[in-house]
């Protein structure tokens, strides 16, 4: 027999939603820059900045190819800055997300896109000697000599940036699997 005022029903659940704590293995604040991952993210931002400045410095002779390179470079640059700021300002500890998995997915996808952008930039650079017809009698090169040199530098920095994103992907995979 139950005491007076007691019921056989269990108490109702707490109405507050349950969110699991975030899974973060990278430090917050300026300590992120002392890790390999933080240093590589900083290099991604630095090299990415150089890539889109160099591509923008040309006349953009092939807008379809170099437009995609610019889109990938600027988008990856902005997202990398946001990703670094999440850790610099400590938001990673406040947002309930598996940051190790998010880090791997972000850097893996960005590596694929950036490597494709590198290939397109290298293809644009390789077209230096091909003529472009202005009319039936006038021809000019697709890339002038100065733009060719800028395009070579953009290809090299696009490759370096893609390598940085590949390294970040490998580091993120290692952290995620541990």
UniProtKB/TrEMBL annotation:
Keyword Transmembrane: yes
GO molecular function: structural constituent of myelin sheath
InterPro entries registered for this protein in UniProt: MAL, Marvel, MARVEL-CKLF_proteins
Domain MARVEL: 32-177
Keywords attached to this entry: Membrane, Transmembrane, Transmembrane helix
TM spans (from-to): 36-55, 67-92, 104-130, 150-173
GO cellular component, one term: membrane
Taxonomic lineage of the native organism: Eukaryota, Metazoa, Chordata, Craniata, Vertebrata
Location(s), subcellular: Membrane
Membrane association type: Multi-pass membrane protein
Protein name: MAL2 protein
Alphabetical list of Pfam families matching this protein: MARVEL
Gene that this polypeptide is encoded by: Mal2
């Amino acid at each position: 027999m139950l005491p007076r005022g007691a019921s056989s029903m269990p108490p109702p659940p707490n109405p507050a939603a349950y969110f699991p704590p975030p899974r973060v293995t990278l430090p917050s604040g300026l300590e992120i820059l002392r890790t390999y991952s933080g240093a590589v993210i900083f290099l991604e931002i630095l090299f990415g900045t150089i890539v889109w400045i160099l591509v923008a410095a040309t006349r953009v002779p092939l807008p379809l190819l170099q437009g995609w390179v610019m889109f990938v470079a600027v988008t990856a640059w902005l997202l990398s800055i946001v990703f670094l700021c999440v850790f610099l300002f400590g938001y990673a500890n406040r947002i309930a997300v598996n940051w190790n998995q998010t880090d791997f997915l972000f850097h893996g996808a960005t590596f694929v896109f950036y490597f494709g952008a590198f290939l397109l930039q290298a293809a644009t650079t390789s077209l230096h000697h091909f003529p472009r017809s202005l009319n039936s009698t006038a021809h000019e090169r697709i890339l002038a000599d100065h733009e060719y040199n800028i395009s070579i530098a953009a290809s090299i920095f696009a490759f370096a940036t893609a390598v940085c994103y590949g390294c970040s992907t490998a580091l993120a995979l290692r952290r995620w699997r541990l």
